[in-house]
Amino acid sequence: MANNGREYEQFVGLLHQALLNAETLTAQRNIEVQRNKKILDSCGVEREFDIYWEYELAGITYKTVIECKDYNSKITLEKLDALIGKVRDIPDLKAVFATQKGYQSGAISKAQHNKIDLLVVREQNDSDWQDVDGSPFIKEVHSNVTIRMPANITNICPLLDAGWAKDKMGIDVGSEFSISGLNNEIFIDNDDNGDTYSLHQLAGKLAPIASSEYGEFKKEERFSSGWIRGPDFRYKIKGYDVTYSLSEPHTEKIVIDFSKELVGVIEYLQKGTKKTIFRNGIIKEKLLPVKR
Hints:
Blueprint: H1 5-22, H2 24-27, E1 34-40, E2 46-57, E3 60-69, H3 77-87, E4 93-99, H4 105-113, E5 117-122, E6 140-147, E7 152-160, H5 162-169, E8 187-190, E9 195-198, H6 199-205, E10 215-230, E11 233-246, E12 250-257, E13 262-268, E14 273-278, E15 283-287
Parallel strand pairs: 3-4, 4-5
Antiparallel strand pairs: 1-2, 2-3, 5-13, 6-12, 7-11, 8-9, 8-10, 10-11, 13-14, 14-15
Helix pairs in contact: 3-4
GO molecular function: endonuclease activity; hydrolase activity
Organism: Halomonas alkaliantarctica
Keywords: Endonuclease, Hydrolase, Nuclease
């Protein structure tokens, strides 16, 4: 994230909108996180706040503002004083401060005395992928996926039943004949075991015996009675010879990087917890490591 105040405000607003959308009580109220909200204080002075949202619950309106400072150093006491001055004359306003690098001790004491929540809102770092005791979480999953294409049937030669061919078709077994149709339209019925499959399904069955086998192959299938049939034909057969080819398998390395799904992190310093917000709407809450 660039060191830009406007971009940081947008980042903070995005994370809090995700939190509000995930909360059971607030999700149904369609709360909109607003930026650069202007509010009149009790003295008639217009005050502008970086982030603002409100919602009503049990007849009471809850209003929250967040002051965002994208600094490369810790927030000073003076910055907290400025926020306190802005909200002093606006009743029933919950004030929150958000930054990236943390707060000086004086600012922390001032915030506690004035009930201002201090947040560190940032992008992820290595600490977000380990438990409070240092145990690592799974950040990436590496796997090798081997893709095998089904066999490519280049030729199939049905063995006509000689008696049936002579009786029904008036041809000798040695006579030439042709069949046509798509591989999912031509079926083979094996009467011996009641098995029925299309040429498309047959291609899936013609898998290599060993992983290293690929190239051109021939298979002979025989049975006492069966049929080959299509959209406009049906012939009685005693089996078939099939010629097919098997392509060399392709292995591809796949890396699943969970860190790409983590949008940002909010640390709640007074509570000692942090929330990690993911793109799919999942929110995870963990304890912050104890500083020694």
